[in-house]
């Protein structure tokens, strides 16, 4: 591509992006495509000769766009958000254009030094004390895997990487039964093994890990000759927002010399608001904390902030220094690739810098407080409606509910979720609470307004009534 076309198509892409964002409210949130419909439009063989850019771009709009689910849609209430604030998109344009591989300080000093600075801004923003060092991981899953590897190496006297696990003592890791599946994966991949992830029951309104049961399990394992290595606590579990009592988990864990990792992938963003910090009270004593600025905060995916007490332990676990990576005579500088599992690193700090400067903490706090308020208001309206019940009360901006109807409640709930998402005006997902299906609602999209929350209420009530109407009809025609 020559310079002139590169300019032309770059400008076109940027303009397209802005128009796309402006058009989101008129699009169905979830892709309305049948499985295979997109693939069927893509030729089986690669092109032998280059194609015209105009044709490629037109196919993007014609074939690809209809198969997209619009994560930046203001009425995206499914999963957790993956917000990309416009200002972070602008930063990503620049990062994409420079396309630097920032694995070492010397492969882009600005990327490393800005990362250190903005992660320290974030540390302060969420109220973590000095003494935590931050690094950007590609995902919370990677941060958790890194933390589990540190647990493993510390518990094995740094012999796991060296000797493998076959000749080692059996390690044990503890978490509640509310944690994200990334914890299971970290346990598998680290070689610790699923049977050594001890699930401690969670209870109470916050579905917090039972810390007496935690301590009993640790003592039982020690007595049996097993080696307790660490605890993974959660603030804001994925299903219903479960929050462990972090202070108590850490008290128990540290009394037995265990490493504590706190997974606050979604809820961590809310900690920029002081009033929510009681949800993770005690976090200042954790060994490792992860939260995703790429979820609620607005930093374009991917961008996961990992804070650790002892970077030395992390580097001792993950650093490899073959000759070609040595940066001679530059002691004391940070090479962040030694803090993460992949060697290669994108320049992720720039979008955080742009985001925090453009919106300021106050702008982001207002967004999060609005989401929490609108979500609570919606939960109240559904609770007052005789056809609905709240299954789990709002935790920050996340709650779950059910529509009361005749027949099999799980089948009805799933049918309602599908009908709502087929309608297209809003997008929701389901979860399982105490064995039964419930509809999950979270408010969190960057451009959401109070009106969008009101639309959500109207759509839910309307689609549920229509579904009941259909049941009545099928019954009558039998
Ligand atoms: C989203 C989420 C994760 C996984 O985050 P990735 O960055 O996609 O790996 C882990 N834990 C919790 C609680 C989450 O909400």
Explain how this protein is built.
This protein has about 475 residues and is α/β, with parallel strands linked by helices. Among the domains are: about 5-80, dopa decarboxylase, N-terminal domain; about 100-345, 3-Layer(aba) Sandwich (Aspartate Aminotransferase, domain 2). It contains 14 helices and 13 strands. It has helices spanning about 5-25, 55-65, 85-100, 110-125, 140-155, 160-165, 180-190, 210-225, 245-255, 295, 310-320, 350-385, 410-425, 450-475, and strands at about 135, 170-175, 195-200, 200-205, 210, 225-235, 260-265, 290, 305-310, 390-395, 400-405, 430-435, 435-440. The strands form 3 sheets. It has a 7-stranded mixed β-sheet, sandwiched between helices. The protein has a 4-stranded antiparallel β-sheet with strand order 10-11-13-12, with helices on one face. Strands 4-5 form a two-stranded antiparallel ribbon. Strand 4 and strand 5 (about 210) form a beta hairpin. Helix 4 runs parallel beside helix 12 (about 350-385). The chain is globular and about 70 Å long. The mean pLDDT is about 95. Pyridoxal-5'-phosphate (PLP) binds near residues 80, 238 and 304.
Keywords:
dopa decarboxylase, N-terminal domain; 14 helices; 13 strands; binds pyridoxal-5'-phosphate; Aspartate Aminotransferase, domain 2; alpha/beta; 478 residues; 43% helix; four-stranded antiparallel beta sheet
